[in-house]
Amino acid sequence: MSGLVAQHIRMEFGTHTAVSDAHFSVAEGEFVTLLGPSGCGKTTLLKIIAGFLAPSAGRILMGGVDVTDVPPEARDTAMCFQSYALFPHLDVRANLEFGLRQKRVAHAERSRRLDSVIAQLELGAHLAKLRDQVRIEIRRIQRTHGLTALYVTHDQAEALSMSDRIFVMNRGVIEQEAAPEVLYHQPRTAFVADFIGAANILPVLDQQPLAEGSLVRTPMGALTMAGTVTGPAIAWRPERARILPPGARAVNAFEARITDRAFVGDHIDLQVEINGLIQRLRLPHCPQAVGEVLRFALDLEDILPLEQGA
């Protein structure tokens, strides 16, 4: 598939809007992931792009050509369904060859392509038990062949590790699209902040401007941040907490009582109570036990402003 453009795609099923005004482009050779929970519209959007569904409104362009009304078999695309959709009466080679036969590719060229693909599949079979390695293999194949790829998942780890860009979908709307690191460090809404990684999300009760930044009042307490808030909430990532030694002073310092503690290998996951509110911390080390108190601080840049979502 060459470069792709989706122009104001809308999909309605009766009174239900599955996709609402999806407008984006995917460059040739780019790997883009549609990420979101079940029912958010990501698979519906993929089926529209592949030609298996006709949109209620909008257009699909591939390589600058309008293919909105072109059937799936006439588009230069291939779609792998979640169920994999293998023909049970065909062996592995015949399944792999099916699309090439449909396109009437010559026998010699079919054999050459199949031998190449089968060699890659044999390598992948040794890695099948290692999910991370399978992700690497999929990405390697996509890069090697310069494929334009749209990948659908609800698994944030897959999306973050494989994608050039991620489109986060919520209730039929693309709530934010960006490179993985941008999405993680600069989520636009509470939904994106919570869906991409772990986040402590706090409603903003009020704020007042400072010489540099703002003082924001939340149920957890007052927080000083580098910018200003125009939306209803702020967020901070659990791993951004810095443990303070006894007697140390810092901006955005809090005392927290540990209510739950879980060792998960490369970090310790804590549930802590701060001013009657339960928040989450993720620390590389923590000598304190459940019931004990620790002090931590957050840098000004760690407080993330959030806009209203879908």
From TrEMBL:
Protein name: TOBE domain-containing protein
Lineage: Bacteria, Pseudomonadati, Pseudomonadota, Alphaproteobacteria, Rhodobacterales
UniProt domain ABC transporter: residue ranges: 4-196
Superkingdom, taxonomy of origin: Bacteria
Record keyword Isomerase present: no
Organism: Salipiger marinus
PROSITE patterns: ABC_TRANSPORTER_2
Annotated keywords: ATP-binding, Nucleotide-binding, Transport
Gene Ontology MF annotations: ATP binding; ATP hydrolysis activity; transmembrane transporter activity
GO cellular component, as recorded: ATP-binding cassette (ABC) transporter complex
